[in-house]
Amino acid sequence: MPSEYELRSADPEREAWTAAVADHPEATPFHTREWCRAVDVGFDYDPAHRFVYETGSDALAAVVPGFSISGLGGRTVVNPFCEYGFPLLTPEADEVGVFRALAADVGPLGARVVKDARWRGARGYNPAGYGATETGAVIRIDADRDYDAVRETEFASSTRRCLRSAATAGLTLREGTVEEYYPIYLATMRRLGSPQFPRSFLTALETLFGDDCHVFLADDADGETVGGLLALDHDGTRMVWSNASYQRAWEARPNHFLYAAAIEDACAGDLDVFDCGRSRPGSTVHDFKAAFGGREFPLASFVTPAHRTGRASLEGYSRAGAITPYLGGVITNRAVGPRLKRFIHE
């Protein structure tokens, strides 16, 4: 039976892409041409972005970001290094039909991974034959209100105590640059034993997103920068993309200080949602984020064909986390880390 939809190669630089993303209420920073270009600059993956049209017409049904990445079992199309990679459908498009058209585009050994979240309410993956694997959760805080109200009604008492500790320690906030943030980020990745993003990727985010990329920095009482947070804004939502700090400064609570400052700045601006980014429920990072309040939404990767769902699983990385901190110096070597990151694409 012929499909009601057909796929065509897409270029995020085209006006059709930009307009579809700009007008879509569910668009995220990871659907924008700026994100797609930054990934291209940092990793040189093969672009696999798609327009979905009604068959035989110029009626656009969806835009779908993605890159084709080679692996041991074949190529996988995915929007890497982010929480969200779902198609942006027009109101008239049939969700199941679009997902089926995407499934027909993967090739004999290929797979497509579509990253989605429960806050969207999409229901078409199962009828379209996709498999699924849970990848964590996000916590989203309503930012369209006064910061004092958020702090008093959402923040846990432990978080407010940590913010008082940060004030007592004399932490101060400023907006800085990736050049200042990157050494702190690299030290954090080395401590965790996690491969780092190349500096070129973070610099590309800063350059391409411009005023929608924020690098918040925390300075201690002596003027040393001890922590940072990189966030991306798009269409009313602020997305925390990276956060790092020096372990020696933890008594001053720089991470609590930075999250609170980024939330306060979001409340003061023209933003509606503060998205804390992905974390694994039960982890210390997730508990840290949950203590700022908000609502938790599960994340999942939907995979076609379903028997290749393992390509989207993060369980292997979680198990490796027990030993990787002991290998931090090797894993984050300048010649090794970015290559590992390119292969892992998470």
TrEMBL record:
PANTHER family: LIPID II:GLYCINE GLYCYLTRANSFERASE. It comes from the Archaea. This is BioF2-like acetyltransferase domain-containing protein. Gene3D superfamilies: 3.40.630.30. Pfam families: Acetyltransf_6 (PF13480). Residues 157-279 form the BioF2-like acetyltransferase domain. InterPro entries: Acyl_CoA_acyltransferase, BioF2-like_GNAT_dom, PG_Glycine_Bridge_Synth.
